[in-house]
Design a protein that fits this description.
Blueprint: E1 3-9, E2 14-21, H1 23-26, H2 29-43, E3 53-59, E4 62-68, E5 72-74, H3 75-79, H4 86-105, E6 118-121, E7 126-128, H5 166-169, H6 176-192, H7 202-211, H8 222-234, H9 246-258, H10 260-275, H11 282-290, H12 295-302, E8 305-307, E9 312-313, H13 321-335, H14 339-350, E10 358-359, H15 360-370, E11 379-380
Parallel strand pairs: 10-11
Antiparallel strand pairs: 1-2, 2-4, 3-4, 5-6, 6-7, 8-9
Helix pairs in contact: 4-6, 4-9, 6-8, 7-13, 7-14, 8-10, 13-14
């Protein structure tokens, strides 16, 4: 967002970059706030892996920020020429994680890490860019989270599909582990050439993010297997099960790059985990039988509203939790005016391996509103 110009600081005799917010965007409160938020976030940070900001202000109605001038290419440009080896990818993600760790130390979450927002200078230094979506962690989910359901207008995109964590897609509270998920996506893509959760459309990509387990990296040597184990721990659906923050991720990457014994140990663990069938741990099974779920909590959960407009509740949907989550995202897409994505997500919910169904009254209202009755879905009688 914004236009960037190369300029000369006549007082200090150095090259700088001037980022200007066009007048039409400056008139938009959302765009203006995003521009100011980025300036505040970067100004609060001082780290060699984060682009430095020198000045911010306005002149004749133009909002501007003066930053260090960078020569080189984005990580996206680099990846367009081909995949990276695990060692090279780890080295780059290490510097990204170091920069993001500086932000995390100030309680700032980036929220939009992707190859386009990573710059590699001519001397090989990695810089994190674009803190326009950065925010401090909150106890409440942001209403700005899901993104490509809105029209593609400046200020509307709050994260990028392909690098979004599940909690961003579902409007749940964000933590530092949200950035760790994005770093895992970047590391996976750098080595494999594709993002881990990919579909033919935004809706199908989000369905894969919610439903599918993280894929594995291509097999290789011990470092490749150890890296795959690290990626798997970055891409877990539950943020509580991920590596906690960027500093912890950076520490583990350093270990992989410098400690051969640790590489062998982590590689062995990754191979065992890949071969191990997914199953409930014994303690979870025992706990499920020994601990009764309070009735009041169960009733509250079943009565949780999925969508107020349709008065649809959890208990109205026959299916598993993934089906309900996809349905919630579909209805949010519908509310944001993107009927095509909403329809695709609803279809994905009904292609689940489990038997799913929706109330007939809901389906009738849905199709009356959409004018599209071609999709055959099951209804609850």
């Amino acid at each position: 967002m914004g236009e960037v110009y190369r300029a000369t600081d006549s007082r200090l005799g150095r090259q700088v970059a001037i980022k200007v917010l066009p007048r039409q965007l400056a008139a938009d409160p959302v765009s203006l706030e995003r521009f100011r938020r980025e300036a505040r976030a970067v100004a609060a940070l001082s780290h060699p892996n984060i682009v430095a900001i020198f000045d911010v202000g306005s002149d004749s109605g133009l909002q501007y920020a003066v930053t260090e001038f960078l020569e080189g290419e984005t990580l996206r440009d680099k990846l367009s020429r081909g995949r990276l080896s695990p060692r090279e990818a780890l080295s780059i993600v290490l510097e990204i994680a170091d920069g993001v760790a500086a932000a995390h130390s100030r309680e700032i979450i980036h929220r939009d890490l992707k190859p386009e927002n990573v710059f590699i200078t001519m001397n090989g230094r990695v810089k994190v860019l674009d803190f326009g979506l950065a925010r401090a962690p909150t106890a409440q989910a942001s209403s700005e989270a899901v993104t490509d359901f809105r029209p593609t207008e400046a200020g509307m995109i709050m994260g990028t599909v392909g690098y979004l964590a599940p909690e961003q897609a579902e409007l749940r509270p964000l933590t530092k582990a949200t950035d760790v998920f994005a770093l895992g996506c970047i590391l996976f893509e750098a080595i494999s050439g594709t993002v881990p959760f990919e579909g033919l459309s935004t809706a199908l990509s989000l369905a894969a993010l919610i439903r599918d387990p993280a894929p594995h990296l291509p097999p290789g040597d011990d470092l490749a297997h150890a890296t795959d184990g690290l990626v798997q721990r970055c891409l877990t659906k539950n943020p509580d099960d991920r590596i906690v923050d960027a500093a912890a991720l950076a520490a583990e990457i350093r270990t992989l790059l410098t400690d051969d014994d640790a590489v062998l140990r982590m590689s062995t663990q990754a191979r065992r985990a890949e071969r191990r069938p997914k199953r409930w741990p014994l303690y979870a099974i025992v706990a499920a039988f020994l601990v009764a779920v309070p009735i009041a909590f169960y009733v509250r959960q079943q009565n949780e509203v999925i969508d107020e407009g349709y008065d649809l509740r959890v208990s109205d949907v026959r299916g598993d939790s993934e089906t309900r989550r996809l349905l919630a995202i579909a209805l949010r897409a519908d509310a944001m005016g993107n009927r095509a994505n909403a329809m695709q997500l609803l279809e994905q919910a009904h292609r689940s391996s489990t038997q799913t169904a929706l109330p007939a009254a809901f389906l009738a209202s849905w199709f009356d509103a959409s004018g599209n009755a071609t999709m055959r879905v099951r209804s609850v009688s």
